[in-house]
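Read as chain and fold; for instance:
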Amino acid sequence: MLNDGDVIDISPLIDDLTPETLCDGVDNLVDRIDAAYDRLPRVDMSGARVGPPLARVGKIVCVGLNYQKHAEEAGHPAPAEPVLFLKAPYTVVGPYDPVLIPPGSTKTDYEVELSVVIGRPARYLTPRDRPLEYVAGYTISNDVSEREYQLERGGQWDKGKNCETFNPLGPWLVTKDEIPDPQQLELELSVGGEIRQRSNTADMIFNVEVLVAYISQFMALLPGDIINTGTPAGVGSGYDPPRFLRNGDVVELSVSGLGTQRQVFRRPSGPAVRHTDA
């Protein structure tokens, strides 16, 4: 846990931050940490790998074309209802882990997104149910995509969204009390130091509250599930000519109040490596 610049080891209280932990309530966990705060050890993170901030992620529900300018650059009108697709949990890696370009891929793309972490079971919500009360907190996702697989190989978008390492997550899970308005967050992404995406969550077509309620009409949202809320304009496929990622490219992305990610995109020299240490 981060607090005023200190890294606090909370493993004496919980083994990991998991869906089960969220079921017990984030507020309850914070109270336990506060009670034991002076006794908890401090940690030096220098040189340590940072994993994703949530273990055993449930399903990842993604929203497509949820920023007006991104829909325009993709050549689509603003959708009348949210466009949904799923990512598998094994796509999740840490915020600074390398991302693997699939063998033979020429159209691997980046997408900075605000991610919503569900903290309470949500089913068939209406606005009167206050959908944001079902949110545990927020983090950052890079919804990495392979556009040929997504758009040119037939079927659904899932083909281009579920390659290994295609969902760097983190670095932090920031509790919702720290983010009073998720519709006032700045997003930015750069490739090799060149800013490609810069926007604000105020430009979403469907805001976080609407998305949580809408998705709950079609599937149960459970603690540890994640909603990737869409990406703004500036993706590689939106340029003319397109500007897809190449071996060695460094991608940095941030959302205000939620930290910064950094990935090096690598083309594996051998067979794809399955990431089991997420």
